[in-house]
Amino acid sequence: MFEVVERSERRTGVTSAGVPPAGVPVAGEAPLRASVYPGFSRPVRHRRRARRQPVELAPEDPLRRMDDAHAQAGAAFLQILHLICELERTRRWKAEGARDTAHLLCMRYGISSWKAHRMVAAAHALPRLPRLAEALQHGLLGPDKVLELARYATPATEQDLIGWARRVS
User: Has this prediction a pTM greater than 0.70?
Assistant: First the structure.
């Protein structure tokens, strides 16, 4: 991070090898522009990920079984979201002493208030976003991505957002 500079370099501006130290402009050249963040003067280039080719996995392969379990977990989460809509419609949360459905989820299942509110919002959004619900049910997207996408996806944008969400981490 720090350069050791000899006394002679400070006086003359030239190293013992006869060249100016890094960052010192040479006569006739434009001075180097200092970066606001030391060590980050070059632009960052993002590398594209190579597309993975789908590989057929054997039924007994642990990765295949994990994929199946992930899809089942997505289907179960989708069922929970559908049941949240039913709780909202019947106002069942009142009988449990909760302020609203999100509060019931917090009390009954130990879900954070933030996530419970996101789940309720997603439960209301998914009926108008069938592709997003299908992506969750089949394990193409996990619950966390679906909760976030349901906040701002529209029927016109959901297909593009699903493709984008599958590419990013």
Answer: no
